[in-house]
Amino acid sequence: MRPSMFRSVFSVVRRQESSSSSVIRRSFFSEANPERKVAILGAAGGIGQPLSLLMKHNPLVSSLSLYDIAGTPGVAADVSHINTRAIVKGFMSDDQLGEALEGSDVVVIPAGVPRKPGMTRDDLFNINAGIVKGLCIAIAKYCPNAVVNMISNPVNSTVPIASEVFKKAGTYNEKKLFGVTTLDVVRAKTFYAGKANLDVSGVNVPVVGGHAGVTILPLFSQATPSTNALSNEDIVALTKRTQDGGTEVVEAKAGKGSATLSMAYAGALFADACLKGLNGVPDIVECSFVQSTVTELPFFASKVKLGKDGVEEIHGLGSLSDYEKEGLEKLKAELKSSIDKGVAFANQS
Ligand SMILES: NC(=O)c1ccc[n+]([C@@H]2O[C@H](COP(=O)([O-])OP(=O)(O)OC[C@H]3O[C@@H](n4cnc5c(N)ncnc54)[C@H](O)[C@@H]3O)[C@@H](O)[C@H]2O)c1
Ligand SMILES: O=C(O)C[C@H](O)C(=O)O
Hints:
Layout: H1 3-18, H2 22-32, E1 37-41, H3 48-56, E2 63-68, H4 72-80, E3 87-92, H5 97-101, E4 106-109, H6 125-142, E5 147-150, H7 155-169, E6 177-179, H8 182-196, E7 207-209, E8 216-218, H9 232-243, H10 245-253, H11 261-278, E9 284-291, E10 299-307, E11 310-314, H12 322-346
Parallel strand pairs: 1-2, 1-4, 2-3, 4-5, 5-6
Antiparallel strand pairs: 7-8, 9-10, 10-11
Helix pairs in contact: 3-4, 3-11, 6-7, 7-12, 8-9
The structure holds nicotinamide-adenine-dinucleotide (NAD) and (2S)-2-hydroxybutanedioic acid.
Protein backbone atom coordinates (compact mmCIF):
# COMPACT_ATOMS: atom_id res chain seq x y z
CA MET A 1 0.00 0.00 0.00
CA ARG A 2 1.32 3.49 -0.81
CA PRO A 3 2.10 5.65 2.22
CA SER A 4 -0.59 8.08 0.93
CA MET A 5 -3.14 5.24 0.95
CA PHE A 6 -2.36 4.56 4.61
CA ARG A 7 -2.60 8.28 5.35
CA SER A 8 -6.03 8.45 3.76
CA VAL A 9 -7.14 5.34 5.67
CA PHE A 10 -6.13 6.87 8.95
CA SER A 11 -7.54 10.29 8.20
CA VAL A 12 -10.92 8.69 7.48
CA VAL A 13 -10.79 6.81 10.79
CA ARG A 14 -9.85 9.98 12.66
CA ARG A 15 -12.65 11.97 11.04
CA GLN A 16 -15.08 9.18 11.89
CA GLU A 17 -13.97 9.14 15.51
CA SER A 18 -14.06 12.89 15.96
CA SER A 19 -17.56 13.16 14.50
CA SER A 20 -20.34 12.87 17.04
CA SER A 21 -23.01 12.66 14.34
CA SER A 22 -23.64 9.63 12.12
CA VAL A 23 -25.22 12.03 9.60
CA ILE A 24 -21.90 13.87 9.27
CA ARG A 25 -20.13 10.51 8.85
CA ARG A 26 -22.42 9.44 6.04
CA SER A 27 -22.14 12.72 4.18
CA PHE A 28 -18.35 12.72 4.49
CA PHE A 29 -18.19 9.32 2.80
CA SER A 30 -20.69 10.12 0.06
CA GLU A 31 -19.02 13.41 -0.85
CA ALA A 32 -15.47 12.10 -0.82
CA ASN A 33 -15.99 8.55 -1.97
CA PRO A 34 -18.99 7.04 -3.75
CA GLU A 35 -20.29 3.59 -2.81
CA ARG A 36 -18.03 0.94 -4.36
CA LYS A 37 -18.41 -2.82 -4.11
CA VAL A 38 -15.30 -4.98 -4.47
CA ALA A 39 -15.58 -8.78 -4.80
CA ILE A 40 -12.60 -11.07 -4.17
CA LEU A 41 -12.90 -14.55 -5.72
CA GLY A 42 -10.56 -16.97 -3.93
CA ALA A 43 -10.75 -14.85 -0.78
CA ALA A 44 -9.81 -17.62 1.67
CA GLY A 45 -6.52 -18.46 -0.07
CA GLY A 46 -2.93 -17.44 0.53
CA ILE A 47 -3.37 -14.21 -1.46
CA GLY A 48 -7.09 -13.86 -0.79
CA GLN A 49 -6.83 -13.47 2.98
CA PRO A 50 -4.24 -10.67 3.19
CA LEU A 51 -5.83 -9.03 0.13
CA SER A 52 -9.19 -9.06 1.94
CA LEU A 53 -7.51 -7.42 4.92
CA LEU A 54 -5.93 -4.69 2.77
CA MET A 55 -9.16 -4.00 0.87
CA LYS A 56 -11.02 -3.72 4.20
CA HIS A 57 -8.53 -0.96 5.04
CA ASN A 58 -9.22 0.90 1.81
CA PRO A 59 -11.59 3.82 2.42
CA LEU A 60 -12.74 3.72 -1.21
CA VAL A 61 -14.48 0.37 -0.59
CA SER A 62 -18.00 0.49 0.87
CA SER A 63 -18.89 -3.18 0.36
CA LEU A 64 -16.45 -6.09 0.38
CA SER A 65 -17.68 -9.42 -0.92
CA LEU A 66 -15.49 -12.42 -0.09
CA TYR A 67 -16.09 -15.55 -2.16
CA ASP A 68 -14.33 -18.92 -2.11
CA ILE A 69 -15.30 -22.57 -2.45
CA ALA A 70 -14.24 -23.10 1.20
CA GLY A 71 -13.38 -21.12 4.32
CA THR A 72 -15.02 -17.78 3.60
CA PRO A 73 -17.35 -17.61 6.65
CA GLY A 74 -14.32 -17.52 8.96
CA VAL A 75 -12.33 -15.05 6.88
CA ALA A 76 -15.35 -12.76 6.47
CA ALA A 77 -16.25 -12.86 10.20
CA ASP A 78 -12.64 -12.08 11.11
CA VAL A 79 -12.12 -9.21 8.64
CA SER A 80 -15.59 -7.77 9.33
CA HIS A 81 -14.63 -6.84 12.91
CA ILE A 82 -12.12 -4.25 11.70
CA ASN A 83 -13.55 -0.77 12.29
CA THR A 84 -13.26 0.63 8.78
CA ARG A 85 -15.88 1.67 6.24
CA ALA A 86 -16.46 -1.48 4.16
CA ILE A 87 -19.33 -3.79 5.06
CA VAL A 88 -18.01 -7.35 4.67
CA LYS A 89 -19.98 -10.40 3.55
CA GLY A 90 -18.69 -13.93 2.98
CA PHE A 91 -20.03 -16.27 0.30
CA MET A 92 -19.24 -19.92 -0.28
CA SER A 93 -20.10 -22.43 -3.01
CA ASP A 94 -21.63 -22.00 -6.44
CA ASP A 95 -25.14 -21.11 -5.33
CA GLN A 96 -23.85 -17.98 -3.55
CA LEU A 97 -21.59 -16.77 -6.36
CA GLY A 98 -24.32 -14.65 -8.00
CA GLU A 99 -25.05 -12.74 -4.79
CA ALA A 100 -21.33 -12.33 -4.17
CA LEU A 101 -20.89 -10.69 -7.57
CA GLU A 102 -24.08 -8.67 -8.04
CA GLY A 103 -23.43 -4.92 -8.06
CA SER A 104 -19.63 -5.27 -8.00
CA ASP A 105 -17.58 -2.38 -9.38
CA VAL A 106 -14.30 -4.30 -9.20
CA VAL A 107 -13.81 -8.09 -9.14
CA VAL A 108 -10.37 -9.35 -8.11
CA ILE A 109 -9.57 -12.99 -8.97
CA PRO A 110 -6.83 -14.79 -7.02
CA ALA A 111 -8.66 -18.17 -7.27
CA GLY A 112 -6.66 -21.19 -8.35
CA VAL A 113 -3.65 -23.32 -7.52
CA PRO A 114 -0.15 -21.87 -6.98
CA ARG A 115 3.18 -23.27 -8.23
CA LYS A 116 5.44 -25.72 -6.44
CA PRO A 117 9.23 -25.80 -7.02
CA GLY A 118 10.11 -27.02 -10.52
CA MET A 119 6.82 -25.89 -12.08
CA THR A 120 6.29 -23.12 -14.61
CA ARG A 121 3.20 -20.91 -14.44
CA ASP A 122 1.98 -22.67 -17.57
CA ASP A 123 1.93 -25.94 -15.60
CA LEU A 124 -1.02 -24.42 -13.68
CA PHE A 125 -3.03 -24.01 -16.88
CA ASN A 126 -4.90 -27.32 -16.75
CA ILE A 127 -6.49 -26.56 -13.36
CA ASN A 128 -6.68 -22.77 -13.33
CA ALA A 129 -8.04 -22.30 -16.86
CA GLY A 130 -11.25 -24.11 -15.90
CA ILE A 131 -11.57 -22.23 -12.60
CA VAL A 132 -11.15 -18.86 -14.31
CA LYS A 133 -13.53 -19.77 -17.12
CA GLY A 134 -16.27 -20.72 -14.65
CA LEU A 135 -15.83 -17.55 -12.61
CA CYS A 136 -15.85 -15.35 -15.75
CA ILE A 137 -19.10 -16.95 -16.96
CA ALA A 138 -20.61 -15.88 -13.62
CA ILE A 139 -19.13 -12.36 -13.89
CA ALA A 140 -20.69 -11.99 -17.36
CA LYS A 141 -24.04 -12.98 -15.88
CA TYR A 142 -24.08 -11.12 -12.56
CA CYS A 143 -21.82 -8.06 -12.93
CA PRO A 144 -21.04 -7.59 -16.65
CA ASN A 145 -19.91 -3.99 -16.15
CA ALA A 146 -17.37 -4.69 -13.42
CA VAL A 147 -13.67 -4.01 -13.80
CA VAL A 148 -11.90 -7.40 -13.59
CA ASN A 149 -8.42 -7.74 -12.02
CA MET A 150 -7.01 -11.15 -12.99
CA ILE A 151 -4.35 -12.50 -10.62
CA SER A 152 -4.74 -16.26 -11.27
CA ASN A 153 -1.87 -17.78 -13.23
CA PRO A 154 -0.86 -18.17 -15.96
CA VAL A 155 -1.95 -14.54 -16.39
CA ASN A 156 -0.68 -14.59 -20.01
CA SER A 157 -3.43 -17.16 -20.72
CA THR A 158 -6.12 -16.45 -18.09
CA VAL A 159 -6.69 -12.89 -19.37
CA PRO A 160 -7.32 -14.12 -22.95
CA ILE A 161 -9.61 -16.83 -21.51
CA ALA A 162 -11.63 -14.15 -19.70
CA SER A 163 -11.85 -12.02 -22.84
CA GLU A 164 -13.19 -14.95 -24.90
CA VAL A 165 -15.74 -15.89 -22.22
CA PHE A 166 -16.98 -12.30 -22.10
CA LYS A 167 -17.10 -12.10 -25.92
CA LYS A 168 -19.23 -15.24 -26.06
CA ALA A 169 -21.56 -13.78 -23.44
CA GLY A 170 -21.74 -10.49 -25.39
CA THR A 171 -20.39 -8.51 -22.42
CA TYR A 172 -16.74 -7.99 -23.37
CA ASN A 173 -15.40 -4.52 -22.70
CA GLU A 174 -11.66 -4.51 -23.37
CA LYS A 175 -11.31 -1.40 -21.22
CA LYS A 176 -12.35 -3.32 -18.11
CA LEU A 177 -10.18 -6.44 -18.22
CA PHE A 178 -6.77 -6.28 -16.54
CA GLY A 179 -4.05 -8.85 -15.90
CA VAL A 180 -2.40 -7.86 -12.63
CA THR A 181 1.34 -7.45 -13.23
CA THR A 182 1.88 -4.99 -10.38
CA LEU A 183 4.05 -7.46 -8.46
CA ASP A 184 6.62 -7.32 -11.25
CA VAL A 185 6.75 -3.53 -10.87
CA VAL A 186 6.93 -3.82 -7.07
CA ARG A 187 9.88 -6.22 -7.41
CA ALA A 188 11.66 -4.17 -10.07
CA LYS A 189 11.41 -1.06 -7.88
CA THR A 190 12.72 -2.91 -4.81
CA PHE A 191 15.64 -4.57 -6.60
CA TYR A 192 16.62 -1.39 -8.51
CA ALA A 193 16.50 0.82 -5.41
CA GLY A 194 18.48 -1.75 -3.43
CA LYS A 195 21.22 -2.07 -6.05
CA ALA A 196 21.48 1.67 -6.78
CA ASN A 197 21.18 2.60 -3.11
CA LEU A 198 18.15 4.85 -3.69
CA ASP A 199 15.15 5.61 -1.49
CA VAL A 200 12.66 3.04 -2.81
CA SER A 201 9.67 5.25 -2.03
CA GLY A 202 10.70 7.64 -4.84
CA VAL A 203 11.58 4.95 -7.39
CA ASN A 204 9.56 3.98 -10.47
CA VAL A 205 10.29 1.24 -13.02
CA PRO A 206 7.90 0.33 -15.85
CA VAL A 207 7.58 -3.40 -16.56
CA VAL A 208 6.10 -4.46 -19.89
CA GLY A 209 5.28 -7.66 -21.80
CA GLY A 210 3.55 -10.36 -19.79
CA HIS A 211 3.76 -12.17 -16.47
CA ALA A 212 5.98 -15.25 -16.82
CA GLY A 213 9.75 -15.65 -17.11
CA VAL A 214 11.23 -13.85 -20.13
CA THR A 215 7.86 -12.27 -20.97
CA ILE A 216 8.41 -10.02 -17.90
CA LEU A 217 10.48 -7.13 -19.29
CA PRO A 218 11.52 -4.44 -16.79
CA LEU A 219 12.59 -1.19 -18.49
CA PHE A 220 15.43 -0.10 -16.25
CA SER A 221 16.54 2.40 -18.91
CA GLN A 222 13.35 4.33 -18.03
CA ALA A 223 13.69 3.90 -14.25
CA THR A 224 13.40 7.08 -12.20
CA PRO A 225 15.42 8.52 -10.65
CA SER A 226 18.03 7.54 -13.22
CA THR A 227 21.43 6.53 -11.96
CA ASN A 228 24.86 5.93 -13.42
CA ALA A 229 25.75 3.68 -10.49
CA LEU A 230 24.69 0.56 -12.42
CA SER A 231 26.80 -1.30 -15.01
CA ASN A 232 25.40 -3.26 -17.96
CA GLU A 233 26.06 -6.43 -15.94
CA ASP A 234 24.01 -4.99 -13.06
CA ILE A 235 21.10 -4.30 -15.44
CA VAL A 236 21.25 -7.85 -16.82
CA ALA A 237 21.27 -9.26 -13.26
CA LEU A 238 18.38 -6.98 -12.15
CA THR A 239 16.36 -8.00 -15.22
CA LYS A 240 16.91 -11.70 -14.52
CA ARG A 241 16.05 -11.28 -10.82
CA THR A 242 12.80 -9.49 -11.71
CA GLN A 243 11.90 -12.19 -14.25
CA ASP A 244 12.67 -14.91 -11.70
CA GLY A 245 11.14 -13.11 -8.69
CA GLY A 246 8.18 -15.48 -8.49
CA THR A 247 10.45 -18.54 -8.72
CA GLU A 248 12.68 -17.10 -5.97
CA VAL A 249 9.65 -17.09 -3.63
CA VAL A 250 8.36 -20.50 -4.80
CA GLU A 251 11.74 -22.06 -4.04
CA ALA A 252 12.07 -20.32 -0.67
CA LYS A 253 8.59 -21.56 0.30
CA ALA A 254 9.73 -25.07 -0.67
CA GLY A 255 6.38 -26.56 -1.67
CA LYS A 256 4.15 -24.32 0.46
CA GLY A 257 2.99 -22.12 -2.42
CA SER A 258 4.09 -18.93 -4.15
CA ALA A 259 4.09 -15.22 -3.33
CA THR A 260 1.06 -14.34 -1.23
CA LEU A 261 1.93 -11.35 0.98
CA SER A 262 3.78 -9.29 -1.63
CA MET A 263 1.04 -10.26 -4.13
CA ALA A 264 -1.70 -9.14 -1.76
CA TYR A 265 0.13 -5.81 -1.43
CA ALA A 266 0.47 -5.52 -5.22
CA GLY A 267 -3.15 -6.60 -5.78
CA ALA A 268 -4.38 -4.04 -3.26
CA LEU A 269 -2.34 -1.30 -4.98
CA PHE A 270 -3.78 -2.17 -8.37
CA ALA A 271 -7.39 -2.47 -7.15
CA ASP A 272 -6.97 0.90 -5.39
CA ALA A 273 -5.74 2.42 -8.68
CA CYS A 274 -8.80 1.01 -10.51
CA LEU A 275 -11.15 2.42 -7.84
CA LYS A 276 -9.46 5.83 -8.05
CA GLY A 277 -9.84 5.75 -11.84
CA LEU A 278 -13.54 4.85 -11.55
CA ASN A 279 -13.98 7.71 -9.08
CA GLY A 280 -12.48 10.17 -11.56
CA VAL A 281 -9.16 10.79 -9.82
CA PRO A 282 -6.88 12.14 -12.59
CA ASP A 283 -3.51 10.79 -13.75
CA ILE A 284 -3.71 7.27 -12.36
CA VAL A 285 -1.17 5.24 -14.34
CA GLU A 286 -0.15 1.63 -13.63
CA CYS A 287 1.39 -1.16 -15.71
CA SER A 288 -1.09 -3.91 -16.59
CA PHE A 289 -1.60 -6.75 -19.10
CA VAL A 290 -4.46 -5.56 -21.31
CA GLN A 291 -5.84 -5.83 -24.83
CA SER A 292 -3.33 -3.73 -26.71
CA THR A 293 -2.02 -2.48 -30.02
CA VAL A 294 1.36 -1.45 -28.60
CA THR A 295 2.90 -4.47 -30.36
CA GLU A 296 1.49 -6.96 -32.89
CA LEU A 297 0.35 -9.15 -29.96
CA PRO A 298 -3.33 -8.83 -28.98
CA PHE A 299 -2.52 -8.55 -25.25
CA PHE A 300 0.49 -6.83 -23.78
CA ALA A 301 1.47 -5.22 -20.47
CA SER A 302 2.49 -1.59 -20.53
CA LYS A 303 1.66 1.63 -18.71
CA VAL A 304 -2.08 2.22 -18.71
CA LYS A 305 -3.99 5.33 -17.66
CA LEU A 306 -7.05 4.36 -15.59
CA GLY A 307 -10.27 6.33 -15.77
CA LYS A 308 -14.01 6.28 -15.11
CA ASP A 309 -14.54 3.52 -17.70
CA GLY A 310 -11.40 1.50 -16.99
CA VAL A 311 -8.59 1.87 -19.53
CA GLU A 312 -8.47 5.51 -20.63
CA GLU A 313 -5.20 5.38 -22.54
CA ILE A 314 -2.52 2.79 -23.22
CA HIS A 315 0.95 4.30 -23.23
CA GLY A 316 3.53 3.27 -25.83
CA LEU A 317 6.82 1.68 -24.88
CA GLY A 318 8.92 4.84 -25.08
CA SER A 319 12.56 4.58 -26.04
CA LEU A 320 14.24 1.25 -25.24
CA SER A 321 17.89 0.31 -24.76
CA ASP A 322 19.36 -2.24 -27.19
CA TYR A 323 19.19 -4.85 -24.41
CA GLU A 324 15.48 -4.11 -23.88
CA LYS A 325 14.79 -4.18 -27.64
CA GLU A 326 16.38 -7.62 -27.74
CA GLY A 327 14.30 -8.72 -24.73
CA LEU A 328 11.14 -7.46 -26.43
CA GLU A 329 11.79 -9.54 -29.55
CA LYS A 330 12.67 -12.60 -27.43
CA LEU A 331 9.45 -12.53 -25.41
CA LYS A 332 7.02 -12.35 -28.32
CA ALA A 333 6.94 -16.04 -29.32
CA GLU A 334 6.26 -17.29 -25.77
CA LEU A 335 3.69 -14.61 -25.07
CA LYS A 336 1.87 -15.29 -28.34
CA SER A 337 1.70 -19.01 -27.67
CA SER A 338 0.31 -18.45 -24.13
CA ILE A 339 -2.32 -16.04 -25.48
CA ASP A 340 -3.29 -18.48 -28.26
CA LYS A 341 -3.54 -21.32 -25.74
CA GLY A 342 -5.97 -19.32 -23.60
CA VAL A 343 -8.10 -18.32 -26.60
CA ALA A 344 -8.24 -21.93 -27.87
CA PHE A 345 -9.20 -23.27 -24.43
CA ALA A 346 -12.03 -20.78 -23.99
CA ASN A 347 -13.46 -21.67 -27.39
CA GLN A 348 -13.46 -25.45 -26.87
CA SER A 349 -17.02 -26.82 -26.70
N1 LIG B 1 -0.44 -12.31 -10.93
C1 LIG B 1 0.51 -12.48 -10.06
O1 LIG B 1 1.46 -11.70 -9.99
C2 LIG B 1 0.43 -13.61 -9.09
C3 LIG B 1 1.26 -13.60 -7.93
C4 LIG B 1 1.15 -14.65 -7.02
C5 LIG B 1 0.26 -15.70 -7.26
N2 LIG B 1 -0.52 -15.67 -8.38
C6 LIG B 1 -1.48 -16.75 -8.64
O2 LIG B 1 -2.64 -16.57 -7.81
C7 LIG B 1 -3.31 -17.81 -7.65
C8 LIG B 1 -3.66 -18.04 -6.19
O3 LIG B 1 -2.51 -18.18 -5.41
P1 LIG B 1 -2.62 -18.47 -3.82
O4 LIG B 1 -1.24 -18.53 -3.31
O5 LIG B 1 -3.59 -17.53 -3.20
O6 LIG B 1 -3.26 -19.95 -3.85
P2 LIG B 1 -4.07 -20.68 -2.67
O7 LIG B 1 -4.17 -22.11 -3.05
O8 LIG B 1 -3.49 -20.34 -1.36
O9 LIG B 1 -5.50 -19.99 -2.76
C9 LIG B 1 -6.35 -20.15 -3.86
C10 LIG B 1 -7.76 -20.08 -3.36
O10 LIG B 1 -8.61 -20.23 -4.50
C11 LIG B 1 -9.73 -20.97 -4.08
N3 LIG B 1 -10.46 -21.50 -5.22
C12 LIG B 1 -10.20 -22.61 -5.97
N4 LIG B 1 -11.14 -22.78 -6.90
C13 LIG B 1 -12.02 -21.75 -6.75
C14 LIG B 1 -13.22 -21.37 -7.41
N5 LIG B 1 -13.72 -22.08 -8.42
N6 LIG B 1 -13.85 -20.26 -6.97
C15 LIG B 1 -13.35 -19.54 -5.95
N7 LIG B 1 -12.23 -19.85 -5.28
C16 LIG B 1 -11.59 -20.95 -5.68
C17 LIG B 1 -9.17 -22.03 -3.14
O11 LIG B 1 -10.18 -22.58 -2.31
C18 LIG B 1 -8.14 -21.21 -2.38
O12 LIG B 1 -8.68 -20.65 -1.20
C19 LIG B 1 -2.35 -18.86 -8.24
O13 LIG B 1 -2.78 -19.21 -9.53
C20 LIG B 1 -1.02 -18.14 -8.30
O14 LIG B 1 -0.17 -18.67 -9.28
C21 LIG B 1 -0.43 -14.66 -9.28
O1 LIG C 1 5.60 -17.19 -9.43
C1 LIG C 1 4.45 -17.57 -9.27
O2 LIG C 1 4.07 -18.69 -9.57
C2 LIG C 1 3.46 -16.65 -8.64
C3 LIG C 1 3.45 -15.28 -9.23
O3 LIG C 1 3.21 -15.28 -10.60
C4 LIG C 1 4.66 -14.47 -8.90
O4 LIG C 1 5.19 -13.78 -9.78
O5 LIG C 1 5.08 -14.47 -7.72
